[in-house]
Each structure stands twice: as structure tokens, then as C-alpha cells.
Write a structure and sequence with these properties.
Elements (H helix, E strand, L loop, with lengths): L21 H23 L6 H21 L3 H17 L5 H18 L3 H20 L10 E8 L9 H7 E12 L4 E10 L5 H11 L5 E5 L7
Antiparallel strand pairs: 1-3, 1-4, 2-3
Helix pairs in contact: 1-2, 1-4, 1-5, 2-3, 2-4, 4-5
């Protein structure tokens, strides 16, 4: 009786869905749910995340599995689905490199379970999860010292061009003036540098020297906001 669920009203859809039994479909669904949860856990490991994205990531293999099961063997339906995926892609908000990689992982799981390759899906998820955790725990890809943002306030009558270059040259591996803006009703200028310090233990010494040059006005040093991309 339940197998009638997988029988189309149309004479021939060109899909393998009509040959799938209820239990086969439910087993694939269960595998997609479990592996989707695993992929979401791998994504959350030492990574900032939102609950909505994690839930979406966990459900994505199940959704992709259903789509692949329906279009398997049907060229026309497959092309139509690719067009829909392209529309979703261009209307979505760009994420970090890890966000995009996690989405691809979830889609790969859904592709495998949708075609019935459950063992392959499990093996692939384990391999990617182990490699991802190993890379996160290792120093692979991390810089010796992170990029930081240095903001220096100077009075409006001070000629600041090149004034801080000598001090920054001694304490940083490289520095770049990225922005200049006015503040406090135009009575102050705020210079923003992107710097990479040689030694984080010398922060106080550097700031003390900078304070002597900018008239002891406000100086702020913080970690730079990084924009990840593929």
C-alpha cells in the first residue's frame, strides 16, 4: 500500500523513483538525516555559527536526496533543477569559505544518498570530518601573527603624513594606511592602519611611542575583520 506513494500519476516519468520501495526510501532518508547532523557538527567545531544555518545544513542532504531521487535518469528534470539551484545561488547572501564548503559537503551527501550509495556517503562524511578537525587543530594555514587594525587620533592642525612610519616600521612586519576620516566635529583626524606586529609583547611600547607623537590622544588596536573567500 505504501509503495503506491512512489508511483507517479503520469504514465512514465523516466525516473527511478517508481522502482524505489518504501523501506529503501526511508533508509536513505535516515542516512541523510544522520549524516546531515554529522556535517553540521563538523561545521560547528570551533567555528562561529548561527542556529538557522546549522539547521539548514543538517536538512540539506535530505532535501538534495529527494531531488536527486526524483530526477535520476531524467535529463530534462535534471536541467530544470540545475536552473533552480542557480537562482537560489545568486539570491543567497555570500558566506565565509567554511560556510560554502559545508554546503558543498551537505549537497555531496545528499547526492550520494539520493542515488543509494549509503556506504559511500558514510565513508565520505567520516573522511571529510576527520580531515577538517585535523586541519582546525593543527597550525596549518594560520599566520604567525594575525592582522590587526590600529586607529590613531591626531589633531586637525597636525601634519600626519609619514609621521608614524618610523615607529610602525620598528614594531610591525608590514603596515598600510587604509583609511583617514574626521571625527569630533572635524577637530580630529582618525588614521586607520592595517598592521601585522612582529611581537605581540611589544604592544605597550609601540603605543607609548605613538602617544608621544599624536599628543596623547586616543589610540586603539584590535584584531582586523577578515573577509574569507574561496
Amino acid at each position: 500500500m505504501l509503495d503506491a506513494t512512489f508511483t507517479s500519476l503520469y504514465a512514465d516519468t523516466g525516473s527511478v523513483m517508481s522502482s524505489v520501495t518504501t523501506w529503501e526510501f526511508l533508509v536513505c532518508c535516515l542516512a541523510s538525516i544522520v549524516l546531515g547532523a554529522v556535517a553540521a557538527c563538523v561545521y560547528m567545531f570551533r567555528h562561529k555559527h548561527s542556529k538557522n544555518f546549522v539547521i539548514t545544513l543538517a536538512l540539506l542532504p535530505l532535501i538534495v536526496q529527494m531531488v536527486i531521487t526524483l530526477v535520476n535518469g531524467n535529463l530534462g528534470a535534471g536541467i530544470a533543477v540545475m536552473g533552480v539551484f542557480n537562482l537560489v545561488r545568486f539570491r543567497s547572501i555570500p558566506g565565509s569559505a567554511k560556510d560554502i564548503a559545508s554546503v558543498f559537503l551537505a549537497m555531496a551527501i545528499g547526492l550520494a544518498t539520493g542515488m543509494g550509495y549509503l556506504f559511500l556517503a558514510v565513508l565520505f562524511t567520516i573522511i571529510v570530518g576527520v580531515v577538517n578537525i585535523a586541519f582546525v587543530l593543527s597550525p596549518f594555514g594560520s599566520a604567525s601573527n594575525p592582522d590587526m587594525t590600529l586607529r590613531i587620533s591626531v589633531p586637525e592642525d597636525l601634519e600626519f603624513s609619514g609621521m608614524f612610519d618610523q615607529v610602525l616600521g620598528r614594531y610591525t612586519e608590514n603596515f598600510e594606511l587604509s583609511r583617514v576620516q574626521t571625527s569630533n566635529m572635524g577637530s580630529l583626524y582618525q588614521l586607520e592602519y592595517l598592521v601585522r606586529l612582529k611581537d605581540l609583547n611589544n604592544v605597550k611600547s609601540m603605543i607609548d611611542e605613538l602617544r608621544c607623537l599624536n599628543g596623547n590622544l586616543k589610540i586603539a588596536l584590535c584584531y582586523a575583520e577578515t573577509k574569507e573567500s574561496l
